[in-house]
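peroxidase
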Amino acid sequence: SGCDASVLLEGPNTERRARTNTGLHGFDAIDAAKRAVENACPGVVSAADVLQFAARDAVVLAGGYGWHVPAGRRDGTVSIMEEALNLPAPSMTVSQLIDVFGRKGLSPSQMVVLSGAHTIGKAPCVTFDDRVQTTPVDPTLAPSFATFLKGQCPYAAIQSTSVDMDSTAHTFDSQYFKDIIAGRGLLTSDQSLLYDSRTSGGVYANNGAAFYRNFAKAMVKMSQIEVLTGLDGEIRRQFDQVNSH
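Structure:
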């Protein structure tokens, strides 16, 4: 699926109910923003556009750079749980990541930059415990970091405990890339970026101020994936429900 706010739709077999998306939150903020623009100008601003503006503003509030959000998307009317299987997985190799992003028109360098979104947030133990619940542990982990992770996740398949995605997980910065260089990338899909010639240069290139600009450009590119315009889709009145005509 593309940038049509299908992930916001509520229902039993929607993308929102997929296991991959169980950690999504902030729906109340999107609801409040959509209600506000609907009150000001009914039927004009889609939930898909609200989601893009909210993503930009969240980055700015956390310390990143803003960007001009191209608007005019319309909302999808279908959300299918199985389509969430197309999302990148934490255990993916670089080749798999390049393929997943490439199918959406994004280059390997853009994939590396967008992975930097992991500078904010947490991940549950179950998404990386395969790196520490083995003997020996994943050799690409810095020993002290492996010890820390084993302390946080003492046995396999813990879903109730989450660990910060980087060492400054409440701030949008380039620390994610610094951590990868130091062997402190949390997910396999993070740390493996350093060990593939197609992506290692991007890890070093974004290890500083350039990341802020590169991320903003990549977000604009990603926000234009498979959008609905013209007469396709609709402008939802409520952010999580298809209009009843």
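The chain has two domains: 6-86, 94-221.
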